[in-house]
Design a protein that fits this description.
Elements lengths: L2 H13 L3 E6 L1 E8 L3 E16 L12 H4 L2 E2 L9 E5 L1 E4 L5 E3 L2 E2 L11 E6 L15 E5 L16 E5 L16 E2 L11 E6 L3 E2 L21 H8 L3 E2 L12 E2 L2 E8 L16 E3 L10 E5 L6 H8 L1 E2 L12 H6 L91 E3 L15 E5 L2 E4 L2 E4 L5 E4 L1
Parallel strand pairs: 1-20
Antiparallel strand pairs: 1-9, 2-3, 3-4, 3-5, 5-19, 6-7, 6-18, 8-17, 9-17, 10-19, 11-12, 11-13, 13-17, 14-15, 14-16, 21-23, 22-23, 24-25
The structure holds 2-acetamido-2-deoxy-beta-D-glucopyranose (3 copies).
Length: 464
């Protein structure tokens, strides 16, 4: 057979099974969420894996994650994307909380916690097109407490009760059963969270279309709206086909996190409800959610989707790094609070809200807006970070970190776009450079830019 035909067959064969499966170790666990609440402490705790860079520069769509990142926690070293989920706590009968440690996926090496990432060809085959620079999506709804079968996203969020030794949850050789809620019994091998992102893109919008600026994303008060809005550019396939409105097949991203609940199992008194609770105060698990910010270098993801079918092994077209190297990439914690060990409340003081009604947002406690802008001495006495530690965001994203102790401009000056211009305890200038207006975000924080509106459900939202 002529070599061209061979090559064509090989490409075709692999294309119908595009698959990547790899580990990304923990980058950081803290109340910082550059996508939803840029430049401020977020309402609940997240884990973030992937590209490490200064989250406080915000998420300007022009930022090129491979350029601004200093390292990545993913075994494929050209993946500087960020993947983010809430984290799980154990609630002791005595009222104390402790974060549940994470275990890496099997056969992927001893990664420091983190997640297992899959990029899969959606059922139905055909060409898989890479996401584009600036693409983001969010699925799930942190306020949800009751599984809703008509909600597409809810149908793609599951848990698996793992059997001893990290088994897949079934009797030997058979798969286990997924649940929508956190498992109601102690799981000998821990609990695996399984999150499947939609794979049909409208081919136009990198982020929901009602983001006028398309740079800083959604403040947390909009959470109940986000999941709806994020679907505006993405859909799940119907009968394995992308709808005409969302015709571009992108990879199905599947995130697994294994919560190693085993050391808490003997602290679970028999007959009592599930003692685990997500960081937003969700003991049901149906409020689990995840964010994705695309950050593959160049055309690496497209090449991989065209050529690779790898369940944890090599993908010849991609560069890899050792597990040692991925574990070395970590981010300095900037939010000043304790999140590990026995705690008297969930970070941010999120109350446990079991539902069945939607949870309500509450005022955050501790570290509500302060964080160490440069990882320097606590108390914020250090000056603005040296230029070298700032991976030069584009000019449009130079929002100074809104730490209360470091006003973004002299008291007499005007605040730059995205800078802080108000909030409890804030003493800096309150006038924004033209054309931006000082906009109330919450009692602790007002920021230059955007317009405020109130959603139907009564949540305050900012449209940037
Ligand atoms: C709750 O129990 C844990 C485990 O025994 C213990 O370490 C913690 O101090 C207790 N908390 C309180 C408030 O008693
Ligand atoms: C369930 O989800 C559907 C689709 O998103 C939505 O229209 C409906 O209001 C939801 N039901 C409840 C009870 O939240
Ligand atoms: C909040 O801060 C107070 C005072 O420093 C501390 O006692 C409390 O444990 C903190 N709460 C949380 C949830 O971190």
């Amino acid at each position: 057979m002529p070599w061209k035909v061979l090559l064509g067959l090989a490409a075709l064969a692999s294309q119908t099974h595009a698959l990547l499966r790899f580990a990304c170790s923990q980058l950081v666990v803290e109340r910082f969420d550059p996508l939803v609440t840029p430049g401020m402490v977020s309402p609940h705790l997240h884990q973030i894996v992937g590209g490490g860079y200064r989250f406080d520069i915000g998420m300007n769509a022009n930022n090129d994650l491979p350029t601004i990142s200093t390292c990545t926690t993913c075994t494929y070293s050209e993946d500087f994307s960020n993947y983010r989920t809430a984290v799980l706590y154990f609630k002791h009968q005595n009222g104390s909380f402790q974060r549940v440690p994470q275990r890496p996926g099997e056969l992927l090496g001893a990664a420091n916690g983190g997640m297992t990432l899959y990029y899969m060809q959606p059922n139905g085959g055909g060409k898989v097109t890479s996401f584009k620079k600036g693409f983001r999506m969010i699925i799930g709804d942190p306020m949800l407490r009751t599984f809703n079968a008509s909600n597409e996203e809810s149908n793609h969020l599951n848990f698996r009760c793992l059997s001893a030794g990290g088994g897949n949850g079934g009797t030997s050789g058979t798969p286990g059963t997924d649940t929508r809620d956190l498992p109601a019994k102690a799981c000998a091998g821990g609990i695996r969270s399984e999150i499947v992102f939609p794979s049909c893109w409208d081919g136009v919008n990198l982020d929901p279309p009602d983001h006028k600026v398309g740079s800083l994303a959604r403040p947390f008060f909009c959470f109940p709206l986000i999941s709806m809005r994020s679907q505006s550019h993405m859909k799940y396939p119907v009968n394995d086909k992308c709808p005409a409105s969302h015709p571009v097949t992108v990879p199905t991203i599947f995130i697994e996190t294994i919560w190693d609940t085993t050391k808490f199992n003997d602290m679970w008194p028999s007959g009592t409800p599930n003692p685990f609770v997500y960081s937003m105060g969700d003991p049901t698990g149906v409020g689990q959610h995840a964010d994705y910010v695309f950050g593959w270098k160049g055309d690496a993801l497209q090449r991989a989707m065209d050529q690779c079918n790898s369940f944890g092994g090599a993908c010849a077209t991609l560069k890899t790094q050792s597990v040692d190297a991925i574990n070395k990439c970590t981010q300095k914690i900037r939010v000043r609070e304790t999140v590990e060990g026995w705690l008297s409340a969930l970070p941010g003081c999120n109350p446990v809200q079991p539902g069945p009604a939607r949870a309500t947002a509450v005022a955050s406690c501790n570290a509500t807006k302060d964080y160490d802008a440069d990882g320097g001495p606590k108390g914020g006495s250090s000056p603005a970070p040296p230029a070298t530690s700032n991976p030069s965001p584009p000019a449009t994203s130079t929002a100074a970190p809104p730490a209360s102790s470091t006003p973004t401009a002299p008291a007499s000056g005007q605040v730059a776009h995205y800078g802080q211009c108000g909030g409890t305890g804030y003493t800096g200038p309150t006038t924004c450079v033209s054309p931006y207006k000082c906009t109330f975000t919450n009692q602790y924080y007002s920021q230059c830019g955007g317009t405020r509106r109130t959603s139907k459900s009564g949540f305050a939202c900012i449209n940037w």
